[in-house]
Amino acid sequence: MAITRQDLEADRLRTTLCSTPVASSLLSDADVERSLRQTLSHRPELPGLDGDVWVFGYGSLIWNPMVVHTESRLATVHGYHRGFYLYSRINRGTWDNPGLVLGLDRGGCCTGMVFRIPAHVVEQEFRVLWRREMMTGAYHPRWLRVKLDEDPAAPAQRALAFVMNRDHASYAGRLPDARVVACLQHACGLYGPAREYLHQTLLGLATHGVDDPYLARLWRQLQDCDAAEAGAAACPVATPRAVSATVATCPDDALAATTHPHETV
């Protein structure tokens, strides 16, 4: 099921999910609207933008913003960093085999993209964003201070960003690389495979000249696990050497997470 902007405008995703077992994890329409209104009420007045606002993307928004915008630029947020901190049981996984998606968590810094939303469509475009990012309340919408990378002398701006809600049931915390890779390798949800989410984010950043060592490291480890699985499939009778190679490439906790996905729920 490919999710389009038209699906979000018509709120089709919520309508579909309300008749499934995940319905209990969704915020009510009233809660979603309340969150949207509160965020709009704190909308900053930024000099030189004539009422326009910035939205900061650090994951899928980089390569698939889906919102009307008149400008996009590289920008850096200080005080938050990007990591696979949110179990995904709808978009990039299922309840039986959860994937992971990115969230902003405290500490460090994060380079991503900001998108300039015209003043006259801010509420319309934010509603699309809320239907995409705020269905379960896993994020807190925040107006963060950002530095536009292409103009280091310019004063800091403020941009809307979705940061981790650490109290949410799907908050994963800081997982070892092996567990992250195990969750990304085979999980797939309504938006597609979890591994595609990682790959597209890497490509989106690289297109703008940004190297993220953390994401690149995970991608290399994911490919190593793929190679180990392919080798095991080509040689179904596992020799001690083959078993040792597989364990060395995919450590015990990664293998356990793949075999017993409920342990990550």
UniProtKB/TrEMBL annotation:
<protein>
    <recommendedName>
        <fullName>glutathione-specific gamma-glutamylcyclotransferase</fullName>
        <ecNumber>4.3.2.7</ecNumber>
    </recommendedName>
</protein>
<dbReference type="GO" id="GO:0061928">
    <property type="term" value="F:glutathione specific gamma-glutamylcyclotransferase activity"/>
</dbReference>
<dbReference type="InterPro" id="IPR036568">
    <property type="entry name" value="GGCT-like_sf"/>
</dbReference>
<dbReference type="GO" id="GO:0005737">
    <property type="term" value="C:cytoplasm"/>
</dbReference>
<dbReference type="InterPro" id="IPR013024">
    <property type="entry name" value="GGCT-like"/>
</dbReference>
<dbReference type="InterPro" id="IPR006840">
    <property type="entry name" value="ChaC"/>
</dbReference>
<dbReference type="GO" id="GO:0006751">
    <property type="term" value="P:glutathione catabolic process"/>
</dbReference>
<dbReference type="Pfam" id="PF04752">
    <property type="entry name" value="ChaC"/>
</dbReference>
<keyword id="KW-0456">Lyase</keyword>
